[in-house]
Amino acid sequence: MSTAESGTGDGAPRGATRRRGEELEREILDAVLDELAEVGYARLTIEGVAARARTGRGVLYRRWPNRAELVVAALGRRRSGVPVPDTGALRHDLVELLRAMAGRFEGMRDDVVRGVMAEAVREPGLSELVQARVAQVELEDAVELLLARADARGEVNRARITPRMRSLPLDLLRNEFVLRGGPVGEEVIAEIVDEIVLPLLRTR
């Protein structure tokens, strides 16, 4: 077994345990989250993560080419698919989708997620990765499907809905989580849908 597979070598600290595969990756990504919580994204280094995970820098670089990829991998590790609701009414579909997304945010370490999302505003490359893998572009596709169904029922005019309008429900939910902290409750989700999103989407 090579040192790259075992998680030793390439500057690994003395006494590092030989690990491989999923066990090694899990310990590395746990170390990323711990480092983020302790020092923040701006001060996080590959060297610091490697030391905390008791492995070598080369092991990390072979799997993740840069810091942003490593951080996003850690944040997205527990990601699972969100089912697309089909209740027969756009309002209920949006509420169910945002509720599922809020539950996903709660499953992450909120202090870490808020810190990385705040940093993403200043670093375009990180922002794109967060949007694609953590915030999940496929959820915008889910909203598009909900809108297509609503259009077929006559609830909205899909032709007048812009990409920015389509992304609004998830943007508002994400901002609530990042800026206010803590779980996003049912009342907030209802306000997002009833007071902002639906009136805009139903504008002819």
From TrEMBL:
Region entry Disordered, spans: 1-21
Domain HTH tetR-type: 22-82
DNA-binding region(s) from the entry: 45-64
Positions of transmembrane segments: none
One of the record's GO molecular function terms: transcription cis-regulatory region binding
UniProt superkingdom: Bacteria
InterPro entries in UniProt: Homeodomain-like_sf, HTH-type_TetR-like_transc_reg, HTH_TetR, Tet_transcr_reg_TetR-rel_C_sf, TetR_C
Pfam families on file: TetR_C_11, TetR_N
Keywords: DNA-binding, Transcription, Transcription regulation
Name of protein: TetR family transcriptional regulator
Species, as recorded: Allonocardiopsis opalescens
